[in-house]
């Protein structure tokens, strides 16, 4: 699948924002610590992936009722669903000037019911011409995701016959439907009931990375 930038300018994918708040001291502290132990863009990106995957439990696995959506809150409180964890990973990458995007899948149960949007992070490392999707959701029984610039290592590969979708758009910010669900949720059980089942295209006509 060809990944498509929603914004033609690469600067959009290193910018700070309310959600991807990589200038926040909490984000900077984690980034500084990881980069000191793992110098070099590739080593740092892989270490940051492992940190978000392993050190921040997925709240649906852990039973944590809190809902986080800012990267700094995810890292400080050490909890979040997939959307929140992808924002945290994007912030850690951007804190070191590595372009990072947010992207999504539509997944379902094995019978095609209960569709839900799943979040991923895409990274563009120096010297690479192609974005690479990463899945920092967190491992669980039967799930073992790794950082990869080659074959993708994702929690799920889509099954088009069940209506599952890989959305090709690379977003500089969380999709509005995703962000709205996170911000409106009183707690995680409320969020579980209001997760988006699909995403509409947004913004200008997407452009392919030259």
Automatic annotation (TrEMBL):
PANTHER family: BLR5614 PROTEIN-RELATED, CONSERVED INTEGRAL MEMBRANE PROTEIN. It comes from Streptomyces cinereoruber. Residues 29-136 form the Transglutaminase-like domain. Gene3D superfamilies: 3.10.620.30. Coiled coil: none annotated. This is Transglutaminase.
């Amino acid at each position: 699948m060809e990944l498509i930038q929603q914004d033609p300018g690469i600067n959009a994918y290193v910018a700070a924002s309310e959600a991807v708040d990589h200038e926040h001291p909490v984000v900077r502290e984690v980034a500084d610590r990881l980069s000191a132990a793992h110098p070099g863009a590739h080593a740092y990106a892989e270490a940051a992936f492992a940190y978000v995957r392993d050190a921040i439990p997925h709240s649906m696995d852990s039973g944590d009722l809190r809902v986080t959506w800012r990267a700094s809150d995810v890292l400080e409180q050490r909890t979040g669903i997939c959307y929140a964890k992808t924002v945290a990973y994007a912030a850690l990458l951007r804190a070191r000037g590595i372009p990072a995007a947010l992207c999504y899948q539509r997944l379902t149960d094995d019978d095609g019911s209960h569709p839900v949007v799943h979040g991923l992070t895409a990274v563009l490392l120096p010297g690479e011409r192609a974005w690479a999707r990463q899945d920092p959701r967190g491992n669980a029984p039967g799930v073992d995701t790794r950082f990869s610039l080659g074959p993708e290592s994702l929690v799920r590969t889509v099954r088009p016959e069940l209506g599952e979708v890989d959305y090709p758009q690379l977003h500089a910010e969380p999709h509005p439907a995703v962000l709205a669900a996170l911000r409106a949720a009183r707690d995680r059980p409320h969020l579980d009931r209001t997760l988006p089942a699909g995403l509409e295209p947004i913004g200008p006509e997407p452009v392919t990375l030259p």
